[in-house]
Design goal:
This protein is an alpha/beta fold. The protein contains 10 helices and 12 strands. A 6-stranded parallel beta sheet has the order 6-7-8-9-10-11. It has a 3-stranded antiparallel beta sheet with strand order 2-1-12. InterPro entries: Metal_Hydrolase, Phosphotriesterase. It holds the Pfam family PTE.
Length: 315
């Protein structure tokens, strides 16, 4: 039976409700020094604002080593009354201390896959030490990342390990695409070479590369297409988001579309920063999608599609 693995335990897909399919409650990266998402009270406030608008679930795509605060996630989820899906996996090599990469690299692809599997089936590490203590909350997805218009050796190694972990557990794989690029290459590797079913792959940030032809090509595979991070000032393509969704819907791919806020800085929070934050999805974007595509399509994008995208027959 398919279930969605949350930090408070496995739930039936229908229990998720309205879902932010890609966001961050906790996140820390050198490129955003001073803007870390590291405050549990602020994370709770953001989730509560989302819940007040009807939000029921949020997928935190923060992978290992980027300040995901795994030990704090269950309490934040419980207090806000919102399901939280956590991630194992790894981002691009540039986001990590070389010494940590060396430690993980010494385990080889199979060892890295075993690391992911343990976080999916036993519990998430409480900190950023790969040999540190493990909590009871489990990951419900694997996060990986491509490069700008290509895949480097680190990306291929991590994706190979992620595919192995998927085959061992059934976990869905979410992909960061740098500026929305290299999605065809990623799909060719994960699905074509490594045999991950397309329906278990969530291709992220496609709004940052608004090429309708490529979007239709990706959708034809059966993968989920995630459009995340709307209305962030440094994304000049945001104004084309609805156009992209309308074209995919017209081509018959409404059932593969996902939306997420992708909040990566403290200043980007709505409840404690300058916004737009997590609530923007329901306060502004959902009504616009319902107006442009119809209420049935909006319900699929925010509720029905995430329920299928994050569900797995866990092994």
């Amino acid at each position: 039976m398919s279930r969605v693995r949350t930090v408070l335990g496995d739930v039936a897909p229908a229990e998720l409700g309205v879902c932010d399919a890609h966001d961050h409650l906790f996140f820390a990266a050198p490129a955003l020094a001073g803007q870390e998402l590291d405050d549990p009270a602020a994370a709770r406030a953001e989730l509560e604002s989302f819940a007040a608008l009807g939000g029921g679930a949020l997928a935190q795509w923060t992978p290992f080593g980027l300040g995901r605060r795994a030990a704090a996630l269950p309490a934040v989820s419980r207090a806000a009354g919102v399901h939280v899906i956590a991630a194992t996996g790894m981002h691009q090599a540039a986001h990590y201390d070389p010494a940590l990469l060396e430690r993980l690299g010494g385990r080889g692809e199979h060892g890295l896959a075993a690391f992911f599997v343990a976080e999916l089936t036993e519990g998430l590490l409480d900190g950023d030490d790969p040999d540190g203590p493990r909590g009871t909350a489990k990951a419900g997805m694997i996060k990986v990342a491509g490069m700008f218009h290509g895949l480097d050796a680190h990306t291929r190694r991590v994706m190979t390990a992620a595919a192995e972990a998927h085959h061992a557990t059934g976990a869905p794989i979410g992909v960061h695409h740098e500026m929305g690029t290299a999605a065809v290459d990623v799909l060719g590797l994960l699905h074509g070479e490594l045999g991950v079913p397309a329906a278990s792959i969530l291709l992220g940030h496609l709004n940052r590369f608004p090429d309708p032809g490529i979007h239709r090509e990706l959708a034809a595979s059966g993968a989920f297409l995630a459009f995340d991070g709307p209305s962030r000032a440094h994304h000049a393509t945001d104004w084309r988001l609805l156009e992209c969704l309308e074209e995919l819907a017209a081509a018959g791919h409404t059932g593969q579309l996902l939306l997420g806020g992708d909040t990566t800085s403290a200043a980007g929070r709505a409840s404690t920063g300058g916004g737009p934050g997590v609530p923007f999805l329901l306060r502004v974007l959902r009504p616009r999608i319902a107006s442009a595509l119809g209420e049935e399509a909006a319900e699929a994008i925010f509720t029905g599609n995430p329920a299928r995208a994050f569900a797995a027959d866990w092994r």
